[in-house]
Specification:
Length: about 190
């Protein structure tokens, strides 16, 4: 079903890329990050209905017969999809069940204020904090570096999923022009 001027999976993907580029310009925006996560997750449905569902040659090449097969394939090819699903559906249904990962506010340690993806104490946050120096965690709530679970900044995860869709759509649409983010270096 077309929404406004978005009528194809490629147009929906272009919206995701534009929103990702906006997020990269405003790296601390939870709203922009959340929109990218939801769009990246729902792009799967657009690709299925607009490109794969009635394309027997592509379904044969992917060794799938149904939308469930396609969803399983996407989940296997992109390890972040189950997390994006949990975030997308959790927000939609206000679920409070454990998602298998924790949310932390990431802030630059006082001695590393040049860290791009770390916040600088703005906003209100009542949850745990991870301090980073470069991309390395240096402690939680000022406790110093101890054994801690590994974490990945959400920007890195979103970027990985946007790249996944770019590469997947280029594979599925070899003759189509598939847009790339201004923040992605293209290989010649």
């Amino acid at each position: 079903m077309p929404i406004f001027d978005i009528q194809t999976h490629l147009q929906f993907y272009e919206m995701l890329v534009d929103d990702f580029d906006d997020l990269m310009r405003e790296r601390h925006s939870a709203r922009r990050a959340f929109h990218c996560i939801m769009e990246a997750y729902h792009l799967r449905e657009w690709v299925w209905h607009d490109l794969v569902e009635n394309n027997q040659k592509l379904k044969d090449a992917l060794n799938i017969t149904s939308e469930n097969d396609f969803n399983s394939l996407i989940n296997r090819r992109c390890i972040w999809f189950p997390y994006f699903r949990a975030i997308t559906n959790g927000s939609k249904h206000f679920e409070t069940r454990e998602t298998g990962f924790d949310a932390f506010k990431v802030e630059a340690a006082p001695f590393s204020l040049d860290v791009l993806d770390a916040g600088f104490g703005e906003g209100v946050w009542h949850g745990p904090v991870r301090y980073v120096s470069g991309s390395l965690p240096v402690g939680q709530d000022g406790e110093g570096a101890r054994e801690q679970p590994r974490f990945v900044p959400v920007l890195h995860v979103i970027e990985a999923v946007v790249r996944f869709w770019r590469d997947t759509l280029r594979t599925f649409n070899p003759d189509a022009s598939v847009k790339s983010s201004a923040h992605h270096n293209e290989q010649p």
